[in-house]
Amino acid sequence: MSTARAEILARVRAAVTDVGRPLGARGDAPRVEQVSPGRAETVELFVENVVDYKAAVVRVAPGGEGAAIGDALRTAQSVLVPAGLPAAWTSALPDGILVVADDALSNGGLDAVDAVVTASAVSIATTGTIVLDHGPDQGRRALSLVPDLHVCVVRADQVVHDVPEAVARLRPAVDRDETAGMPRPLTWISGPSATSDIELDRVEGVHGPRTLHVILIEG
Q1: Which end of the chain is more exposed for a tag (fewer CB within 10 A), N or C?
Q2: What is the mean pLDDT of the segment spanning 111-130?
Q3: Residue 77: is its pLDDT beyond 70?
Q4: What distance in Å separates the CA atoms of residue 149 and residue 118, rounded to the nearest whole number?
């Protein structure tokens, strides 16, 4: 048996050992390290992979996110704003756009709104993935799944290199909610919603937003 095969099988055995016990009681989870060459390189890799998923990325300096959000919403007639979103982020919305609060809107009510603006919790460079933990600046899960346009704000210091690093950063918040008996949902977003049939014809907007617009705050 090759060394690589033996290592893979050992990791699988470790991962499934005594699965009936709570995660924290099983010891440290196996981790495959993917070392980042540097902070700037990690951010560049994230941007490259998000664009590869056919999402738009706009890079702004701190304080420029309000104007960038306004520009991203220039064709929208209505936008959903989570209660905890910073007020400065909605200071430059297009004239006439209807700002909708999430007052327990039904799925039908959410579907009637063109766009949603959210913050994010963590982003992953190697996969081009954005993770929402649905804090006050992100709102409940349905908000980012139903409207056709999702404008998502990511801070450069939220971008980590790989999935294990993201999980480690998310773990404390998840643990707090699990202790209270309310597991926190996480939404992992890799580009706009899309699927392909057997002929590889790509159809967008089937399981979520048709358009993902990422605003990256650098500096």
Answers
A1: N
A2: 96
A3: yes
A4: 11
CATH of domain 38-217: 3.40.50.10420
pLDDT at 17: 67
- Rounded to whole angstroms, the Cα distance separating 15 from 104 reads 39
Summarize pLDDT for 162-216 with one digit per residue, the tens.
Answer: 998 998 888 776 666 655 556 678 999 998 755 555 555 555 545 568 899 999 9
> What is the spatial distance between Cα 215 and Cα 151, in angstroms, rounded to a whole number?
7
Whether residue 166 contacts residue 132, with contact meaning beta carbons closer than 8 Å, is answered with no
Tell me the three state secondary structure of residue 129.
Answer: strand
Cβ-Cβ contacts under 8 Å for 163 (sequence gap 6 or more): 124, 126, 127, 129
**Domain ranges in the chain?**
1-30, 38-217
**Whose structure tokens read 């910073």?**
86
Strand partners, 196: 202
Q: Which residues pair with 161 in a beta bridge?
A: none
Global pTM? 0.78
Residue 149's closest CA among 115, 124, 119, 198?
A: 115
Instruction: Select from 198, 57, 177 the least CA-distant residue to 123.
Output: 57
Output the six-digit token pair for 158: 């939220």
The residue ranking higher by pLDDT, 25 or 60, is 60
- The 3-state DSSP composition of the chain as helix, strand, coil percent (nearest 5) reads 35, 20, 45
